[in-house]
Amino acid sequence: xxxxxxxxxxxxxxxxxxxxxxxxxxxxxxxxxxxxxxxxxxxxxxxxxxxxxxxxxxxxxxxxxxxxxxxxxxxxxxxxxxxxxxxxxxxxxxxxxxxxxxxxxxxxxxxxxxx
Length: 115
Fold this sequence. Notes:
Number of domains: 1
Oligomer: single chain
Helix content: 40-55%
Strand order of the largest sheet: 1-2
Largest sheet: 2 strands, parallel
Number of helices: 4
Shape: extended
Order of helices and strands: HHHEEH
């Protein structure tokens, strides 16, 4: 873990500072997250893949994480801490928005017009 790049998950000011305390906090968070991910999240993901996807032989999660070739990140650069991302990370902000929208209810429209 590089100490000069703030963690994507941590959003507190202490971890984003490059002070000794900020780095200690970031390392403690990283070790805690890695432990939880390895011992709690991965077994649950394997169980869900077997249950919902019908997969009987699933490679280890560490192996699948090592073979990631594309990450779609639902965020916009104007809302994030300024940092560079590797080429495999693509920001797709607004991907969940539908092209066709329904008309506003009459009450909402009247509230907007009256303002």
